[in-house]
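Sat 14:20. Reprocessing the chain from the morning session after the first attempt stalled halfway. Input below, unchanged.
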Amino acid sequence: AYEIPKRDWSSDVCSSDLASLSGADRALDPAYRDLALTVAVQDRGVPFMDRLLGATAKSEDPLFRANAVRALAAAETPDEVQRALAIARDERLQSTERLRVLLALSGQAAGRDALFTLLSNDWDATVANIAAFVRPRLPTMFASYCDPAKADAVGALFGDRKSTRLNSSHVSESRMPSS
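Finished this time. Tokens:
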């Protein structure tokens, strides 16, 4: 009987991707780069995330950077989530890239819980690199919490933070019609 050889496609994608990281720009078609990098992060974990972060920091290609940031935020395991949270504070990334990592992590249960814990324990350092105009929207990262206790915890965390409240006088002034 003929046996069909099994092929580890993720390893092929990762090999192409690793070649791409080492400078062979045509090793992977850019149309597949986003998916390939995400698969590589999820299959290879923290060591690959570290290599990808280094390559991202050195890159001047905005498409590669965007693909890499999405992949870095695709963390699934607790170790990967913790590394992604640390990456979100890495000064080598642009502030919008760091914010994208946080927003993406907030979209999944493990990332959202870890992000909430980080904000609860280290608010100032975590929020320091987030643009002031974005801060009032930070509580929306936890909008999918259905449990009343978690909703109360979010309210307690953000309720007294001046940096996450909109200035009501500014809002009403900006909506006033000009004469």
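The two ends are 86 Å apart (CA to CA).
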